[in-house]
Amino acid sequence: MALRGLWRLSSLLRSVVSVTLRRNISLSAIVFNKARDLDPVQKLFLDQIREYNTKSKAAGGVVEAGPAYQKNLTEEMTKLQRLYGGGDLSSFPQFRFPEAKLEEVTTK
């Protein structure tokens, strides 16, 4: 009888401890996420990425690319077109797979 009472008490304590730990872990995760959002280094990094994105969209390509970059880019594109048979290298290729013609085979 005393053993049953002790068993019930221990299971009750386990459930209470389990619920308390789950609540504490959940609350600490929320607090950690809020603290992470306020990290100044992370905020600075994201601001720089956003600034580069807006500059890139305004420039229509690479930001602050000089004439040497453009010259090098055209030379490399010319090399690739010469090596791989021309075509438009700025767009994804279109693949066409025609249906194979199969002949019916009869056995005699």
From TrEMBL:
InterPro entries to which the protein is assigned, alphabetical: ATP_synth_f6_mt (IPR008387), ATP_synth_f6_sf_mt (IPR036204)
Protein family membership: Belongs to the eukaryotic ATPase subunit F6 family.
GO cellular component, one term: proton-transporting ATP synthase complex
Main location: mitochondrion
Cellular location(s): Mitochondrion; Mitochondrion inner membrane
Gene3D superfamilies: Mitochondrial ATP synthase-coupling factor 6
Coiled coil: none
GO BP: proton motive force-driven ATP synthesis
Record key words, sorted: CF(0), Hydrogen ion transport, Ion transport, Membrane, Mitochondrion, Mitochondrion inner membrane, Signal, Transport
The protein's role, per its UniProt record: Subunit F6, of the mitochondrial membrane ATP synthase complex (F(1)F(0) ATP synthase or Complex V) that produces ATP from ADP in the presence of a proton gradient across the membrane which is generated by electron transport complexes of the respiratory chain. ATP synthase complex consist of a soluble F(1) head domain - the catalytic core - and a membrane F(1) domain - the membrane proton channel. These two domains are linked by a central stalk rotating inside the F(1) region and a stationary peripheral stalk. Mitochondrial membrane ATP synthase (F(1)F(0) ATP synthase or Complex V) produces ATP from ADP in the presence of a proton gradient across the membrane which is generated by electron transport complexes of the respiratory chain.
Signal peptide: 1-18
Oligomer status and interactors: Component of the ATP synthase complex composed at least of ATP5F1A/subunit alpha, ATP5F1B/subunit beta, ATP5MC1/subunit c (homooctomer), MT-ATP6/subunit a, MT-ATP8/subunit 8, ATP5ME/subunit e, ATP5MF/subunit f, ATP5MG/subunit g, ATP5MK/subunit k, ATP5MJ/subunit j, ATP5F1C/subunit gamma, ATP5F1D/subunit delta, ATP5F1E/subunit epsilon, ATP5PF/subunit F6, ATP5PB/subunit b, ATP5PD/subunit d, ATP5PO/subunit OSCP.
GO molecular function: proton transmembrane transporter activity
Organism annotation: Cyprinus carpio carpio
The name this protein goes by in its record: ATP synthase-coupling factor 6, mitochondrial
